[in-house]
Amino acid sequence: MADKKKPFNVDMAEQRIKRLFKLAEKAYKKRPDLADRYVEISRRISMRHRVGIPGELKRKVCKKCGSYLVAGENSRVRLDGKNVIITCLKCGAIKRYPYK
Ligand SMILES: [Zn+2]
């Protein structure tokens, strides 16, 4: 039973992370500070349970300042052929990932 518990926790952690990102998305317009808070909580869950934040959600968080990023609001998104370049307008951090 002991080894059955771990995948369950991991699954729970993933669900919670996804839920928090949904909440962040909803909260952003009215309460950007709350959105950042949700992201912070989800990062903590991810660390505690050693669960990675899913790739598509990771792109919505600034690695440097931890802000929840919304394109055209607090982040700038550009394409340079093969890559997507996201600039956090709060701290200026830039991240790139391959464009699919
Ligand atoms: Zn930032």
Structure description:
InterPro entries: RNP4, Rpr2/Snm1/Rpp21. It catalyses: Endonucleolytic cleavage of RNA, removing 5'-extranucleotides from tRNA precursor. With 100 residues, the chain is an alpha+beta fold. The chain has a single domain (8-98), classed as Single alpha-helices involved in coiled-coils or other helix-helix interfaces. Helix content is 47%, strand content 16%. It has 3 helices and 3 strands. It has helices at residues 2-27, 32-48, 55-58; strands spanning 75-79, 83-88, 94-98. It has a 3-stranded antiparallel sheet, with no helix packed on it. Helix 1 (2-27) packs antiparallel against helix 2 (32-48). It is globular and about 40 Å long. The model has no long low-confidence stretch (mean pLDDT 92). The chain binds zinc ion. Zinc ion binds at residues 62, 64-65, 67, 88, 90-91, 93.
Ligands, deduplicated: zinc ion
**CATH architectural group:** Up-down Bundle
Q: Which ranges are low-confidence, i.e. pLDDT below 50, for 5 or more consecutive residues?
A: none
Shape: globular
The CATH superfamily bears the name Immunoglobulin FC, subunit C
Topology pattern, helix = H, strand = E = HHHEEE
The first-level CATH class is given as Mainly Alpha
- Helix segment count? 3
Strand order of the largest sheet: 1-2-3
Q: How does the helix and strand content classify structurally? A: alpha+beta
The tally of structural domains comes to 1
Mean pLDDT: 92
Counting DSSP E segments of at least 2 residues, the number of strands comes to 3
Distance from N terminus to C terminus (CA atoms, Å) equals 41 Å
Keywords: Cytoplasm, Endonuclease, Hydrolase, Metal-binding, Nuclease, tRNA processing, Zinc
EC number: 3.1.26.5
Family: Belongs to the eukaryotic/archaeal RNase P protein component 4 family.
Function: Part of ribonuclease P, a protein complex that generates mature tRNA molecules by cleaving their 5'-ends.
